[in-house]
Structures are given as structure tokens and as C-alpha cells.
Amino acid sequence: MASVNKVILIGNLGKDPEVRHLEGGVAVARFPLATSETFKDKNGQRQEKTEWHNIVLWRGLAEVAEKYLRKGQSVFIEGKIRTSQYQDKEGNQRYSTEIVADQMTMLGSKGEGGSTSGNYQEQSASAGGYSGGGNTATAGKGASSAFQNDEPDDLPF
Description:
By secondary structure, this protein is mostly beta strands.
């Protein structure tokens, strides 16, 4: 039976990306992404619901995020859902759900300076580094296969 784990989001960064460099210089960036929808409730009043998503970028995508992404900026994210379970310090079972992105497009920035845009995606197999020109860059294979770890990464974000 075939299965698909694919997520497509367009939203705004809730804060600047937090970037860490792991052993071997592997970069990982994390940030919350807000997606909102508006609807009318049963009384005809307009309501807005915001959903928050934990986004994780690895390697080259993390470096691009560190350099160009800022709080409030709009981005297109494509990736997959990853849920991890772990035990906290009190022994309670905890779950963490993240979107591990393999493609990112900067849609613009809020505030001064106009807009910024660019397409970034992970490249498959053994290719690494950045390639191409213009607004497109590719990053090496993502940690989803290169950094399989079922335990929490002990990063404080």
C-alpha cells in the first residue's frame, strides 16, 4: 500500500530562526510558522484561527534561513510531518510534532525594505552545496535520512 507524507504551508514566521551547528558543522534551524484562516461563526461574526507549526530546516536550508529569514516574513514551506516521542525528566511520555522542510520559498518581508524572494530546496542523494543561479539554491541531503535519531535532540527550542 502506498503512502504519502507531504505538507505544504504558507505562513509567517513567529520569530527569527534559531540556528544551531551540531557536531561536524551540520546546521539545523527551527522556527514557529503561523498559518491563519478566517471564517464566519454561527452568529455571522468573522473569526480568525491561527495554527502554529514547528518548522525544522537542515544543512543548506538552515544556513539560508539564518541569513535571510526574519520574524513576520512570509514563506512557502514544503516538507513532511515528523512526530517524536520521548520521556521528560519526570518520566512522562511526551510527543513533539515538527514539519521537516525540504523546500522553502521566501515570499516577501514585512516592514521596511520591500520584498525578498527566492526558492530553496534540498537536493537528493549525494549532491551537496549550492548550485544554480538566480534565486534558486539547493542544499545537501536532509537530516531526515542522514540524522535519524528517535530521541529528542536536547536542543532548547
